[in-house]
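[Structure tokenization] protein backbone as discrete codes
[Encoding] learned vocabulary of local backbone shapes
[Protein] chain in single-letter code, fold in tokens
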Amino acid sequence: MRQPWRVAVVGGGIAGLAAAVRLRDRAPAGTEITVYEQSGALGGKLRTGELAGQPVELGAESFLMRDPTGAESAAVALARRLGLADRIVHPTVGQAALVIDGGLRPIPGGTLVGVPGDLDRVTTVARPRTDADTDGGGPLVGPDEDVSVGALVRSRFGDEVVERLVDPMLGGVYAGRADDLSLVTTMPALARTARVEHTLTGAVRAAQAAAPRAPGAPVFGTLVGGLSTLVEAAVTASGATVRRDAAVRELTPTDTGWRLTVGPTRAPELVDVDAVVLAVPARPAARLLAGPAPAAAASVGELDYASVALVTLAVPQPQLPELSGFLVPSTEGLLIKAATFFTTKWGHLRRPDGLALVRASVGRYGEEAHLQRPDADLATTVHRELSAVLGTPLPAPVDGHVQRWGGALPQYAPGHADRVAAARTALRAAHRTLVLAGAGYDGVGIPVCVRSGETAAEEIITALGGSAR
């Protein structure tokens, strides 16, 4: 009689947990699922804390409601699967701003992650070139070509559009520079249309038309009670055995699957399983792959990461604009790269006493030295810069929190998608029961990570040759 499958999920972030839920839903009954998490906390960058007596996100804040096709996003589908659909709420204020010349200006509409489809609409914040986006007789990029977002936009619209619009928009997501980030990975919809359209404005408009959104439909959502409720519900639904503070130090192929070496060197635990979902960042993944799959390890190990700090202040009755927050171009010379007015943006967080939660993101790729400052110094600098941008002194905070995320945000250089595809091809050829999942491979954002974990789970089911339920 065949024994139940044993599947290890290495990494307890949302990608790993989504994989565990999908395995529970689709793998044969009795499948044994174990999640190994090196730290003591599950959820990865999804972490809800408390500040001034109410929940506050210490990591990811929200998720996209729709995927690029216009269908329900994987994050919404997972929330529905976990019985959390009635907890989804949307921003009550959607307008954000850019810091330009020290002051706030509304982010112009009609752009795709800052790349304009109509140059006239962005003149309030930047002076675009109007002579370079011409039809050269062929598509903007070749069928297999990947370029940096910054290089493409600079060549068509000039430096100011990149520095004042695209760079802060991408920097708010990746903490990186547009000149270093892959078009294919960070803006896949634009990459697809750029392979057909002859102008960048045409490519932006085509990408926008390919993913229409109903007027007034919410773009983002979050959960009442915080995103940690998604983590907790996923753990429960997966029925997995969860091993916290359990570092997997080695993966060794066996005749029937894999042997995991878990725990400290002086007292290792050896665990045999049939398959592994490897849902950890690229660098630890490369270390684990170095023995069984050196070619895959080499491809995966090229990915670099940026570190950030999130500084949240609880401020009594401040004079805040009716904005969800603002983004800061690096040319402004501020430590802050983005700020969110939580209690303005999210109506369910507003308090009758007027206490406001304001969160600032600090740290850009290549500027990690700024993050070496003590927490108190970061908080003081953030308070001073917020006051300067708002043009009025903020009241002294009554509470605050500094959350540091070392090596948190992948930096997808051009060619990233090809490198990941090569790694996965090498893995499938040698070890079909070892599958990669997570932001290091497929992109950032909760929906992308959820989909990545679910896809990995489906691959494991197929590799083990069982019938999915």
